[in-house]
Design goal:
With 183 residues, this protein is α+β, with helices and mostly antiparallel strands. The protein has two domains: 88 residues, no CATH class; 75 residues, no CATH class. A hairpin with a 4-residue loop joins strand 4 and strand 5.
């Protein structure tokens, strides 16, 4: 039995090594996204200005935003927009974003690219692609198998029954205490 657990543990860990590394990196980065967010970076910016319409409600119209975007030759790549307080943000395909102040009509267009490797691992972590969700669910099951077989590999004084359960309990208590204190 011990040899079977060891083999299952080893082979699943080998198979998912790349995904374990990718999710580990991107998970750490997502934890610190307020300080540093390498999903993408600006490789070019351009200051722009537009005439704010007398009826600011026009800014929430797709037709008006597309007309406005035509000034910067971006109408054909328009994706969506939002207004929050005095800020207009327009999203375009190919990682282009316009941020503008709707009281002054001044803004900045940012052209962005994914950070090699780190940005791509974050994409994997955040994607909602149905195939990838299924693959990630299977990965979650594989991680359970790695954890369970890992508990059963060692025998003797360092086994789960003798020593490992104490470490596992401590590992379980930490997030529970965190949830009680901070949520």
């Amino acid at each position: 039995m011990n040899l079977t657990n060891r083999n299952i543990h080893r082979d699943i860990a080998y198979f998912y090594l790349g995904l374990i590394l990718a999710f580990s990196f991107s998970g750490i980065i997502l934890n610190h996204r307020q300080d540093w967010y390498p999903m993408d970076y600006s490789y070019e910016t351009k200051e722009v200005e537009f005439d704010v319409p007398s009826d600011v409600a026009q800014l929430d119209s797709q037709e008006y935003i597309k007309e406005l975007s035509a000034q910067w030759e971006l109408a054909d790549v328009y994706d969506s927009h939002r207004i929050r307080e005095n800020d207009l943000r327009i999203f375009y395909n190919d990682n282009v974003i316009l941020d503008a102040d709707i009281t002054t009509g001044k803004g900045i267009i940012e052209y962005k690219r994914k950070v090699p490797f780190l940005g791509h691992t974050m994409f994997l972590h955040k994607t909602t692609n149905k195939f990838w969700i299924w693959y990630s669910d299977i990965f979650g099951i594989a991680m359970l198998a790695i954890a369970i077989t890992g508990m059963l590999i060692t025998k003797g004084k360092n086994s789960f029954k003798q020593r490992g359960w104490k470490l596992a309990l401590a590992g379980l208590l930490f997030p529970i205490v965190f949830l009680i204190l901070f949520t």
